[in-house]
Design goal:
The protein has helices at 3-48, 64-70; strands at residues 54-59, 72-80, 88-97, 102-112, 120-124, 130-136, 139-148, 151-156, 165-166, 174-175, 180-181, 186-196. With 200 residues, it is α+β, with helices and mostly antiparallel strands. It starts with a helix and ends with a strand.
């Protein structure tokens, strides 16, 4: 094969390779940005919930490259290990500015098991959504929640109440609506607006 033929083939192949190389670079940059955002998110969560163990994260708002350039996470879900006296815990982080460490909204969802010995069957509404009521041992029970002394306390209209659990120390934390009676327990939502989450 002559050198002129080799050059001609190279000129044909090169334009085909450039998009593939660029695409590979974009994929690598996106993956790297996603890992960077997740690392900073975990660090930020550790500042507000130092004793919680993060089991999974889901950072939304692609492309992650743009989120990294803005140093901002628009939406992220953070699953936490259940912990003492709770079935499930999750954080929803919204509009977290990684420079200032401020999140516009930080929502904390915790599911507290029914009282010991109580088997709850949720009472749903007309569209099948959970309500604040459940059938417990044949009796319909309404659940309410309140924050008191750094704890989440669930009360009932009748029968034994679930045990109280510690509430996270979040800026301006308050209850969001009424609790929901689910198959596994009472789901309580707390919300903190303009929450400070400075990275450790």
């Amino acid at each position: 094969m002559t050198s002129s033929v080799k050059r001609e083939r190279a000129l044909v192949v090169l334009p085909l390779l450039i998009p593939a190389v660029l695409a590979g670079g974009v994929v690598a940059a996106e993956a790297g940005s996603g890992a960077w955002l997740e690392r900073d998110l975990r660090s930020a969560v550790a500042t507000v919930l130092p004793d919680a163990r993060v089991t999974d994260t889901n950072v939304r708002g692609r492309p992650w490259v743009m989120s990294r350039l803005d140093n901002r996470i628009s939406t992220a879900y953070v699953d936490l290990a259940a912990g003492d006296g709770v079935v499930e815990r999750r954080l929803l982080v919204q509009e977290l500015d990684l420079d200032s460490g401020r999140a516009e909204h930080l929502r904390y969802f915790v599911t507290i098991p029914y009282a010991e010995g109580a088997a709850g069957t949720p009472v749903t509404d007309e569209v099948g959504a959970f309500t604040d009521r459940a059938k417990v041992n044949g009796t319909e029970v309404t659940y309410r929640a309140r924050l008191s002394g750094g704890a989440i306390r669930v009360t009932t209209s009748s029968g034994p109440a679930p045990r109280s659990v510690a509430a996270p120390a979040l800026d301006g934390m308050e209850l969001a609506g009424e609790p929901s009676a689910t198959e596994s327990g009472i789901l309580v939502e707390l919300v903190s607006r303009d929450a400070r989450m400075v990275r450790s």
